[in-house]
Amino acid sequence: MTTPRSVSISGNDLTLEQLYDVAMGGAEVGLDPRARARMEASRAVIDRLVGSGRTAYGVNTGFGDLAEVRISADQIRQLQLNLVRSHACGVGAPLSEAETRAMMLLRANALAKGLSGVRSIVVDTLCGMLNRDVHPVIPSQGSVGASGDLAPLAHLAQVVIGEGEAIYDGEKLAGGEALRRAGVPPLALETKEGLSLLNGTQGMLALLALALREAEILVDTADVAAALSLDALRGSPTAFDERIARARPYAGHATTARNLLRLNRGSQIRESHRAAERDPRVQDAYSLRCTPQVHGAVRDAIAQVRETLLVELNSATDNPLVFSDTSEVLSGGNFHGQPLAMAADQLAVALATLAGISERRIEHMTNPHTSRLPAFLTADPGLNSGFMLAQITAAALASECKTLAAPHSVDSIPTSGNQEDYVSMGMSAARRLRPLLDNGQRIVAIELLAACQGIDLLAPLCTGAEAQKAHDLVRSVSPRVTADRSLAPDIAAVVQLIADASFQRLLR
Q1: Which end of the chain is more exposed for a tag (fewer CB within 10 A), N or C?
Q2: pLDDT tier at 1 (50, 70, 90 boundaries)?
C-alpha cells in the first residue's frame, strides 16, 4: 500500500514541486510544528497591542484611504468581517481547480511564516479545506495587483468564514454548506485575520507558478519539434556545434544545442545530403540555424522567472508585518505585485517568441519554394490542400500571441482614493499567460505534425533514433496524411501529448 503524500508548510521551504503536487496531485497539507510556534508568538504581539489601546493599521483602523479612521475595540471583529465581505467583488470566469488549490496553499504558506499576527487555526482551516477538497469559487478578475490580490483572496476568505460559494464533491454550494459537508468548521475571524487573508500576491503567484510549469514543458517540446523540422527540411546540425555555444556561453543556448544534436544523431536524412555537391546550401534559414539562440533565450527567460517565483513562494506579503522578537508591527508594501508582474511579462514575451519561430518553421515546411518537399506536404497537391490551412492556423495563433505579449507591468491606475496610486496589474499579467500557453501548445503541435509528415515524405530515409521516438509518439495519435482530412482532431491529440509532458520526457 502506498503511503499518502503530504506537504508540511512552514513559510520557509515550500518548493514548486510541492506546490504542483498539492495543486494537481491531491497531496495533503499540514502546518509544521515550528511554524505553529512562530505564529502563536506573532499572534501574542497583536493581542498585547489590542490590549494596550495603541493604534496600528489594519488592527484597529480602517483600510486604504480609510486608514486614519480609528475603530473601537468592540467593533474590531466586525471590521474584519466587513472587510472580507466588501472586498469579495470579483467578476469573470472562476479560477480553475488547480489555480484555486495553488492559491489556497500559497496563502497558507505565507501565513505560516509567522509574520502576520494570525492564529495558527487560520492555516489549519485552509489546510483542512485543501485536504477535504473544498474549493472556493474565485472570480478571476478584479485585482490590480498592488494591495495584494484583494478581490480574489476575499472570495477565498469568504468560504473560510462559511460564506461565499465553493465546489465540493463536484457541486457548487454555499460556502458554509460545503464546509459542513466536508467536516471543516468555519473560522470566526479575530483581530487582523481578515486583512491577513486578503493582503498578498497569491492569486497572481498561483497562476504564474502553474504557467511556469507548462512553459518549461513547452520549451522542451519545441526543441523536439525543431529537431524533427530540421530533418524534414534537410537542414544542417553544424550550427549546433558545442564550440559555437561556448563562444557565447548562455546556458539556454547550450541546452537547446545539445538537445538538437542528440535528437538528430544518426539521421539517414542528414547523411544523404552531407556532401556539398549534392546540397549546395551554405547556411539554413534563421528559424533553423538560430534555434539555439532563440529557444535558448526563451530558456534563460524562463529560468529567471523561476528564480523570482522561488523568492515569492516563501515570502510574507501582507501588511502590516508582525515581528515577535521585538514586538513591533511595521507597515510596508510587500503586497505589491511588481516583481511578479514583470516576471509574467517576461514569460509572456518568451512564449510569444517560441510561438513565432515555430510558426516560421511550419511555413518553411509547407512552402514548396523553401521546403524542397511536395507543396503543402501532400503527395498530390492541387487535388489536396494538405497542411495549407494548418500553417494559416499557426500564423493566426502566432499573431495573436504578439498582442497578448504586450506588457502589463508598466500600466497603473490609481485606486482607493489615490492611496494606492501605483499598482502592478500583476493578476492580469498572469491571467493572459493561459491563452499564450494554449496558442503555443497548438502551434508546436502543428509543427510536430508537419515535421513528421515531411519526414514521411522523405522515406525510406529515417530520422535519428531519438527523434524517431518523437515521430512514433506523434504517429500514435495521428496517422500520416495521405489525403485531405480535418486536422483539428490531430492537433488536439498532439496538444494533449504536449500537456502530458510526453515529448519532454524524451529529453530526460
Answers
A1: N
A2: very low
Cell numbers found for residue 115: 509574520
Which range is least confidently modeled, 12-16, 236-240, 389-393? 236-240
Quickly name the fold that domain 6-200 has: Fumarase C; Chain B, domain 1 (1.10.275)
Output phi, psi for 204, to 5 deg.
-65, -35
At position 251, the amino acid (one-letter code) is: A
Please tell me the predicted confidence (pLDDT) of residue 277: 46
Please provide the DSSP assignment of 408-473 as one string. STT----BTTTTB-S---HHHHHHTHHHHHHHHHHHHHHHHHHHHHHHHHTTTS---HHHHHHHHH
**Does pLDDT of 59 surpass 80?**
no
- In what helix (H) or strand (E) does residue 328 lie, and over which residues does it extend? strand 328-330
Is 503 within 8 Å of 497 (Cβ atoms)? Answer: yes
Question: Whole-angstrom Cα distance, residue 313 to residue 319?
Answer: 17
CA distance 416 to 63: 9
**pLDDT digit string (tens) for 460-503?**
999 999 999 999 999 999 999 999 999 999 999 999 999 999 99
Domain ranges for the chain:
6-200, 208-317+326-410+420-507
The angle formed by the CA atoms of residues 96, 404 and 474, to the nearest 5 degrees, is 70
Q: What pLDDT band is residue 70 in, cutting at 50, 70 and 90?
A: confident
Cis (ω within 30 of 0) for the bond into 320? yes
pLDDT recorded at residue 2: 46
Task: Output the pLDDT for position 44.
Answer: 96
Residue 193 exposed, middle or buried by CB count within 10 Å (0-12, 13-18, 19+):
buried
Judged by average pLDDT, the poorest of 68-72, 96-100, 155-159 is 68-72
Q: List the alpha helices (DSSP H) in 233-278.
A: 242-247, 251-264, 268-272
Superfamily of domain 208-317+326-410+420-507: Fumarase/aspartase (Central domain) (1.20.200.10)
Contact criterion met (CB below 8 Å) for 56 and 131: no
Backbone torsions φ then ψ of 171, nearest 5 degrees = -125, 140
Active site residues: 57
| Residues contacting residue 37 through CB under 8 Å, at least 6 positions apart | 114
